[in-house]
Amino acid sequence: MEIADLVPAMAGYAIESLATKVFLTERKSWTGPASGLTFSVAMQVTHGNTRPDVVLQLNGSDVAWYDITSENRLEHVFKKDGSGWKTKPYVAEITYPQVTAQTVESNTAEWQNAGSPTIINDPMIFANYWMERGRFEVSMDLMRQDILQTSPSLLDHARKAADNVTGNKNNTRRQEFMRACLALYKAGALSGSSSESDVATAIADRAEMPDVTALKPLPKDTAAVIQWLTNDHKKYGFERDGKSSFASLRVQPGIVWLQECAAHKQLTVSDTAVITHIGTKYPEGLAVLRNAGLVGPQVGTQGSADQP
User: Given a cut of 70, is residue 299 above it in pLDDT?
Assistant: First the structure.
């Protein structure tokens, strides 16, 4: 898979994480200019199956939820898990311009043509970028390892369960079984180590239950998830979506779904694991962390993550 496919999700993860961390450092309360009321500010607070990026509270109760998102995903909060996005007194999206590989390339060239001037003197800004990038990559690796930990995999079991219904291949049924499989995985009813019989039983018994149907990804998102995980979405029934071919499938929606799934499952990645990952793959990133004082000079590029 091209690195370009990962750029929007990586950029979004970094932007949203850095924005909340910087805001939280500088401001823990906010006074409305019109009302004069002072609201407490909380960041990335988990509420059931969802996690608003910014929450305003008044007298201990949530009164406003904000989601930081790319401008090309406007109104996606109404498709998120959790009823709060439709019931809170105030809900809004804080948007940033869509970031693509072309955006990065263009901005980098402009910066280099200007003589590569110092952007900001605070080394923590760059260190936080590398930590968030590393956390994103490690969490995605963990998701892939979990879902594909056995052979045949969780996805293979779901495909076989679909074919066993009538004893022959049916792409529409395969698609529905894959959607149900991912929803059950997100709900915690299935795992990467679930057996073939457990997968078939769970899909047969629970696929149409409200708590599962609410978590099912859309067909094209499901195809994107599978393509990112296996690089072979057609194997699992996504050859056509009823209107057109999946030939031009983008993996970006699949990456976003997997990120949301990781958050739903409360997957956590330690700073030590992140630093190890950066030290193994990105010497330039490790140098930035060292400059910010997050790692000691003894930490090498072989992935040692000893703290100073």
Answer: no
